[in-house]
Amino acid sequence: MNRLCSSPRVSSQTIPCRLPIALVALIGSIAASQAAMAVSPGLVEFTIGRQSLRGIPIMDFSSELIVLGRDGQIHTLTGRAKDSIRPLDGVYEPASTMEMRSNLQREFGREFEVLSTQHFLVVQPRGRGKRWPDTFERSHRAFIGYMSKRGVMIRRVGFPLVAVVMPYSAAR
Fold first, then answer.
1. 1 within some domain
2. Cβ distance 125 to 132 under 8 Å?
3. What is the pTM for the complete model shown?
C-alpha cells in the first residue's frame, strides 16, 4: 500500500511524515533561511515515545505545533506532546549525513541499503543498483532548473533529502 505519510513511529501525540521531495526541499529551505536570520525560531526539544528529539518550530497553531527535526522530518505535535516541548539555548544544527544514514539503516534494517548522492540519501531494497539514486538526482536538477527559470530561488537545505524505494508488491 502506498501512503504519502507513514512511519512505524506514529503515535496519537505525534505524526512524523515523509513528504514529497519538492515540498520537503521548500519547507527545509524556508526553515533553513529562518534559522539563519537574526529573529529565528528557537531550538526546542520534544519527545516521541521515549525518544528525545530536537528541532525548530516552523508553524504554531492553537491545537498543534509543526516542528522541523534535525533530520529534516516534519513532526506534528498535539495535546500533551505540544505542551511538553522545552525551549533550548543554541542554534538549529541539521543532522549530519552520516548520522542520518546510520539512523535510516537502523530504521529499515538489513534488507535495505542506504545510498548517498549529492542531494539524497536513497533507501532501497539491497541490490537495486544506481537506477533510483540517479533518477532522484535527475528529478532534483529538473525541479531546480524549472524553478530557477521562473525566478524562484531554492536554497540548499542543511541535510540530505530522504527518498525511500519500497520493494515491489504482488498484485491482488
1. no
2. no
3. 0.65
